Amino acid sequence: MLPLTPRLEKLKDRLFNIEYHDPGIWYFQDMNILAIKGNEFMMDEPVVVRKAYAHQHICRYLPAVIRPDELIVGRPNQNSVGWGSVLPKYYTEEEGETAARYELDECSVWGHHPPAFDKIIRQGVTGVKAEIEEALQAQLSSPEPDETALNEYRAMLIALDGLTVFAHRHADEALKLAQAETDGTRRQELLEIYRVCQRVPEYPAESLQEALQSYWFTYAIVNSGGEFIPLGRADQYLSPFYQQDLASGRLTREQAVDLLGSFLVKCNERIIIDTKKAENHFSFGLFSQGVVLSEEDAQSRINGTGGFAQRALMWQENEDANSEANFNYGQSGNDWLMNCMVGGVHPDGTDATNDVSFLLLDVMHSMHLLFPTMGARVHKNTPESFYQLLGGIMRYGQGEPIIYNDETIIPGFVETGVPIEEAREYCNDGCWETLIAGKSHFSYAHVMNLRCLEHVLFRGVSLSNGEKEGLDTGDPLAFQSFDELYAAYVKQMHDRIDFQCQRRLENFGLSYMIAPDPLFSAITYDCVKKGRDISQDGARYIFHLILATGLADAVDSLAAMKKLVFEDKSVSMQELIDALKNNWEGAERLRMQMINAVPKFGNDNDYVDEIAVRLLRDFEAHVVDWRTKQDRLKFVCGIGTFENYAVLGRDIGASANGRRFGEALAPNYSPVAGQDVEGPTAAMRSITKPDLLRFYCGTPLDISVNSNEFAGEAGAQRMADLVRSFCDLGGQVLTVTSTNAEELKDAKIHPEQHKNLRVRMGGLSAYFIAMAPAQQDNIIRRFSR
Q1: Is 492 helix (H, G, I), strand (E, B) or coil?
Q2: Distance between the two ends of the chain, CA-based, in angstroms?
């Protein structure tokens, strides 16, 4: 563990003892910039230009904050995934009502994908503006100028000017503080902050401090515009400045650690340990991708209800906040989809692991920080020292870093038409999905595998509401073989894939009517070239991920029916259907038979694993059909639930693997909890039997191991070997939570003694002591086997 410098000790102390208990202030509530005196001219501007002025308003009036001891400065608004966003409005009442009919509002920016942070760092605002101005002049010189492009370019320039304003306001604040500072060392630090903020992000960065400050200012303002985004490949962006400063003598290694740590602390300042202090600012349009609503639903949105807002209200009012399912909404309040990737390869295929890769991981670990969620890319030429670092950190638990295997992910990108040089620069989005940083628009949709099986058995009717939501694939009592059952299942699954792909094709671009993002677009490749916003077709790649969700539950259920109903004939189809309809009431012996008499996915047993192979092959082939018959969107495959495995299971009826109505699904691409009895290596062998090359956008295996088995240096080596084995087998994404039931139980009783304890929740990491009791108990159960 890296010893902390005195500065980082102070910053960590302030973070854990002050910042984590301060709910902060939500700025720009109930504000419409069109109502501000002097802004009347904006009424004649298109929405995208008004949005740019809203960005400028944020930059002019979000407080310029510089705290003691910090070297990187600035703070975004309080916006978060779990508690919503507050943005200044910039549209008329009529425009708002029109957008509401599509479940859209100003918060309907999608986030998830990182912009090209390195572009701002390397070129500065001036360099990016020069490209836009050149494109603008080309349009103005055209015989038939593209009005949409002209408006986009003007909006980009306005938004970028705001970024410079934000930095200069911090320069003014630093100078004011320096003039009042009595400590000579801190005065010099403040004067340097003043100099840095005068230069960046307006101009290209020339030092590590300038690069970090440019990076952070850009993130802070994009995020304050409602975009919850990852940081991309931070080590690659920062390493040239680090190496240059060390070589020139500008910085020592300890000073570099101070700068990196100061940057990482900024990523954590909005965390709230006591969720009772949180404010609910969900709107119905948050994370909406646009959909045509019924008149009844449209009216509810116009009135400000429904959608995400309604779900957040249920949580906020504690209707069932202590339940595992509803709590996930609250836990994500401490989440900004802020992931960060290190390691991997350069565009030419050579190893890209560098000193900054090591330092970022070391500082994160030593300070026990939650964000950014760290991801580490490994490949066949990854240095042994990097594996040792990963093993040493991962044995302490915390669920980080997440491991990404270049050897299975990069070929997947190439197969879908991404040039290999760009594929080698992939990073993660806000959870664990993979994309190309600065060049991608990304979104996703779930196909509920277990719901598809439910529709087979109940002829398209959902048990949760009694409504017909799927196909009628025939009377299940008439099925004479497992193959007939499986064929019906595939029809249901393909129908859901069809629905998700068709809806995305029809609705992509709707959010532009109310939630364009000219600032994000200005630093996303090809938006300037095309003259289009990222919410339109501006980005180079538009990925839409179709997720196989609840896979392990579906596979175990199919295996149970194959063996007991069709092969052994010890259970009749009617008997099973009746038991599921009644949620296993009065059928506990049958339930135990379905659980215990059949092999389970995750134990390296071909009987059940081959069903997973077959299912995923049929899933992927249908998604590929959608990708190849049109060239607008890249439909890609993944397997996952994110942290919402409990929420997603809430509305699914009892299933043939013994699961009861409403119980949680298995998280991501992991076996059902308690059923992976042969250990982690067997689970790895099971999940790598399907061709994961076709699921390169994300197939995370979440493993929980007992920390007592990974103690000391020998434990670190065991963990490094576990990571290497996972990659050698062809795994893609791996998360490991290493703790033990005794530690977790003690943390529940004595939270003040376990402030640093973190666990992985499928799509995010969380401080254990901030969880609701039901969620804590669920985590404890994972380690009590």
Answers
A1: helix
A2: 30
Task: List own/partner pairs for 564-572 with CB under 8 A and 24 or more apart.
Answer: 564/593, 564/594, 564/597, 564/598, 565/482, 566/481, 566/482, 566/485, 567/482
The pLDDT value given to residue 779: 77
Count CB neighbours of 447 within 10 A. 26
* Domain limits, the chain: 7-229+271-317, 339-432+698-782, 440-649
pLDDT number for residue 708: 86
Residue 526, judged by CB atoms within 10 A of its CB (0-12, 13-18, 19+), counts as middle
- Contact status, residue 399 vs residue 739, Cβ threshold 8 Å: no
Tens-digit pLDDT profile for residues 733-767: 999 988 888 888 898 898 888 888 888 776 677 88
Q: What is the mean pLDDT of residues 560-574?
A: 99
C-beta contacts of 354-358 below 8 A and 24+ residues apart:
354/235, 354/236, 354/239, 354/243, 355/239, 355/242, 355/243, 356/234, 356/235, 356/238, 356/239, 356/242, 356/260, 357/235, 357/239, 357/386, 358/385, 358/386, 358/389
- Helix ranges, 567-642 (H): 573-581, 588-596, 606-628
Distance CA 417, CA 122 (A): 28
DSSP 545: E
How would residue 591 be classed by pLDDT, with cut points 50, 70 and 90?
Answer: very high
Instruction: Give the relative orientation of helices 482-507 and 551-560 as an angle to the nearest 10 degrees.
Output: 160
Q: What is the DSSP code (8-state) at residue 566?
A: I
Q: Which pair of structure tokens corresponds to residue 693?
A: 């090359």
Q: Tally the C-alpha atoms within 13 A of residue 387's C-alpha that lie toward its C-beta.
A: 20
Spatial CA neighbour of 726 closest among 697, 695, 703, 744: 703
* pLDDT value of residue 316: 46
DSSP labels for 668-699? TTPPPTTT-TT-HHHHHHHHTSS-GGGGTT--
What's the CA gap between 437 and 118, in Å, rounded? 10
Average pLDDT for residues 709-734, to the nearest whole number?
A: 95
Report the predicted TM-score, pTM, of the whole model to 2 decimal places: 0.95
What percent of the chain has pLDDT above 70? 96
Q: Which amino acid is at 433?
A: E
Which of 61-65, 520-524, 641-645 has the weakest average pLDDT? 641-645
Over pLDDT 90: what percentage of the chain? 82
Whole-angstrom Cα Rg for the chain: 26
171 and 197 Cβ atoms separated by less than 8 Å: yes
Please check the confidence at residue 581 and state whether its pLDDT lies above 90: yes
Spell out the SS3 assignment of 181-224. Answer: CCCHHHHHHHHHHHHHHHHCCCCCCCCHHHHHHHHHHHHHHHHH
At residue 643, the 3 state secondary structure works out as coil
In degrees, rounded to 5, the angle at the alpha carbon of residue 519 between the alpha carbons of residues 515 and 523 is: 125
Higher local confidence (pLDDT), 585 or 664: 585
Instruction: Give the pLDDT confidence score for residue 304 in this predicted structure.
Output: 76
